[in-house]
Structures are given as C-alpha cells and as structure tokens.
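Continued from yesterday's entry.
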Amino acid sequence: MELRPRQTELTEEWRGAHAKLLQNVKLKPLVSLYNESVSTEIEGRKVYLPAYVPYIGARYFEYRPRVLCYAINQNLSPHVPWTREWVSYWTQDEECAFDRLNRAAREGRAIPIRPYAEGFIPLVALLAIRCWTKKCGGQLPDKIDDVVGVTNFVKFSTREDASSSSIPAVWWRECASSYVAYEIQVLEPDIILGFGLKTLTELRRVLNNETLSKRELHVLGCRFPARMASIKARPLSSEESKTWKRDILPLSQSMREPNSDAYHQWKIERFPGYFMDVVASWINQV
C-alpha cells in the first residue's frame, strides 16, 4: 500500500495552516453539552474526545482548485465496533486526538471519515475538480488525497447513538462558530462540498459571515452517501452507463484504496447512480 507523504515533505504553508487550526481546537476543545458526547475511562477518570482539525492533503496549498469537504459527524458510539479501539487510542495521546485525521493518513490508514474511506467523498471531489478544469483549465491531481481537505462539520458524536439525527442543535451552531468558519478562513478553498442537506444549510449560514462572504467560492451539496446510497442504488440507463464508464469511473485511478478493514469498505463501483445524480445536480454550478 502506498503511504502518504512524510511530515518532512510538507510545505511551510501547510505547516503554518495546520498549526493555526491545531491551536484553535486546543483553545476550544469542547462545546456545550459535551457530557453527552463519546468518552472513555482512563484510570477511573472519564475522558471526552476533543474537537479535531481537518485532514489537509500534503499538496493542498500548491494545487488549484482547493477543495474542502464537509461530512456531518464522525459517527462514534459504543454500538459501532471500531469506536472502542479508536477512542482508547486517541485518548491515550491528546495530540493524536486533536490531529486524528492527519495522523491516520500519515500512518497509512484510512482517513477516519467513513464516506471518505468508502470512496464517495474522494470521487465527488474529483468530479468537482473535473468540472472546474473544463471551464478554467488545469489538470486532475495524481492522487486526490494529496490535494483535498476533509473533515466533519460537527466534531462530536453523541454517546448513545452514532446517527447524525442525534446531534444537538447547539453543536451545529457552536461548531460553526468555533471551528468551521475558522477552517474556511485558514484553508481558503475554491470549492466547498457539503454532504447532507443539514450540512449544506449550515455551511451557507457560516458563509454569510461578513468576512467569509467577500470570498469568491463555490458551495456544492450532495446527498449524504453512506447509508442512503446503499438503500437507493439504482440501475443506470444505457446513456448513463456510457457516461459512467467513459467520464467518471476513470477518475478512480486518482484515488488511493487503503487495505480493507472493519471500518473501510470500498463501495463506489456498486453505486454509480449516486455519482450520476451528483453530476446532474451540479450542471452550471462550477
């Protein structure tokens, strides 16, 4: 398996942005009602997982367009098999907890945002870049992981239920003001992808901020892919099938497929209708 670029290969701009984001979450590690979020016990002491910084591709600042992706939340709960192992690992090392997405990538593991690990988000990001290059010129990246940023809008998961429907309203508001607005300010994306209607709505609310509203960027929304895509997978028409094979499936060559594990299952080729719907909804938006 091909590992991500080593820390020593990262640019000064990458390091500077990463340091700013890391400092921000260290100053504001928790939000209201944090006692409802996932925790673990260390030597009899309850420890809550803090907020974390986005994964930032090693070449993010050297490539255009810059694409920043927002899923909903990390879906951790005692009912999910990988949660106990990950929570225990992250809470043993506070620095790792704050930087869990980049740490996973540097260690050659799947970035722990499931629709990213399954391949949905990377391929959608490539579709957005393809739309951009058709209008503005440029080339597709060799590997999408190297140029994209990805995180969750809500940095916490409720302890009782991994589903996004359990997220308290206050978490959306406080994550927007404490983390998301600053992430967009520091990372300066050209395109923001929001997965899920609520995520897209809240992103647009953030971008109404006086400072951020002055920036010229594209905000594109998609259905949340993981469960919905498996439920609503549909057969392609003959014309769609040609488009899928000719224009979309070849983009997967620019994606890394990590070794399969309990968390990661590569799914993109099983749900081509999802990506065809994404393309149809973006006509003339990029």
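--- second protein ---
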Amino acid sequence: MSLFLAHKRARFLFHRVILCAFLSWNLTELAEAKDHSSHRIKSMAKRSSIQSGRIAPAKALSLRSNAALVTDVNTGAVLYEKNIDVVHPIASLTKLMTAMVILDSGLPLDATIRVESSDIDLERGSRSKMRIGEVLPRRDFIRLALMSSENRAAAALARTYPGGQARFVSMMNRRAAEIGMASTWFVDSSGLSHTNASTARDLAKMVAAAARYDLIRQYSTTPEVALTRFDSGQQIAYRNTNLLLRRNTGWEINLSKTGFLNVAGYCLLLQAKISDRLVNIVLLDSWGRYSRLGDAHRIKKWLQNRYPAAPGKM
C-alpha cells in the first residue's frame, strides 16, 4: 500500500512539474509578445507623430553651435530653434547693422574716405590689408566691411558719419529698436568689443531687415574682389570670410556674414534657398573654426530631407 501511494505521489509531482514548466513557458512567450507588440505600437505612434508634426523637428537635428535659429522667410515659421533668447557677444555680425545705417543715411557712396590712424584696432590688434592713408569710395568700405569683415573699413564708416562715431552707434541702436531687436545693443561699428551683444531671435530679425538692401545682398555674397589703391594704383585682392561662398559648394546664398571673437566663438548669419524654401539661419557661439560651416551643412541636409525639392529642382 505504501509503495502504491509513493508511486502515485511521484506521478503527481511529475505532472505538476510539467504543468509549471508549460505555464512558465507560455507566460514568457506572452510577455515577450506583449513587449514586442508594445514596442511596435510605440514605434508606429512615434512615426505618426513625427509625420503629423507633433514631435518638434529640433529633436531630429543636433548642432554644435550653442545657439541657433532657422526660420522660413516667406511664412515666418520657426523650423528649428536652440537657446534663441540667450544673449551672446556677436563680433563682426555687427557689420550688417553698420551697413544698414550707412545706406539709410543717404551719404554719397562714391565719395572717397581716407583710412586714418584712429581706425586701427588697438583693442585686439587685428590685422588689415587697408593701409593708413588709403583712399577708397565709401561703397568699397561697405563692401570690405561685409565680405572681408575689414575692421578698419567699419571704423572709418562710423568715424565719417555726421556726428562721428558716438552718433553712429546711437543710430545703430535706434535702428535695432525699430526692427524689434529688444535684447540687442551696440557700442562700436566693427564688433571688436565683446559688449556688442544680441540673441539668435533678434539676429534673425536683423538678417530679414538687411536682406531688403540690394547692395548688402550683393556685397555680403561677393566671393572675392580686387580693389585698386588710389595712391599707387596697386591692386589688392580681398576674399569673403565665408568659405561657403569661396568654393563650389552647391549653396544658393542671398546674404552672408561671419563673426569671431574668443568670447563670442564662431558665428554665422545666412539667408539661403534650400529645397525651394528661402530660410534665415543664425548660428552663434560655435567652438571650432569649421563647426559653424558643419552646422550649416547639417541644417541644409536636414531641410532637404524634411522638405524635398519639387521634381526637376535642386
């Protein structure tokens, strides 16, 4: 009798083990299937959200500049933003405002200006191809300030403004206020002072305003120019500081300005046509000489993928 009960108990335990194993296997399979299904549902929902625009496009683009803004010129829509209200020194981006104030003044562009010793950068000792005593038309001073970021050209433009440099800087700040640059201020015409500061939001407004001037668009995107010195007849070659304009890069750029100071990092302003879309691009405080250009290329590729050009267009 005891042998029978022992045998029966052994069979009971054996079947229980088999049942537990079977249930465990099914529960594992069920959990894995549930996890897979949940992951698939989440992935489909994420793709659907991205396609519908509910997920911010900024999540799909990573830039090295500490502040950036991309806007659609025609609609005003913000396509990408990063730290757009943080105030930064803006270095030679300042020269766009310098050009606007000069052009607004109505001063004769063919009138000649002479480079004076007071135009030399004593604060940072920046180099210049413009010699003391050199004489050029005012329009060439604007051209060199925009395309080659010549500090002496920008200083001379302010110095020869009616009322001098102090009056000129006052007009720069007034013009900034007129176009809604509420977090911007200027103390000089070249941007050599780190006190010249703004935000990406404000600078997008400056790009939009500057792009309305035919001469600014033309001069800021000139790849290179050779100017003849008035006194000696010698020709001096000047190149654009934006490498995107010096090479066959495939960019269609309407307006450009670069800037650099140690405290400002590398900065870049662009108005460009990408995938049938005219955009303003602001890049601030990028550390690394070529990182701002890399960011510009990343933005271009991102826009081309997100908004493909119509068939037959680039």
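The CA atoms of residues 147 and 220 lie 5 Å apart. Residues 2-52 form the longest helix (51 residues). Will compare against the first tomorrow.
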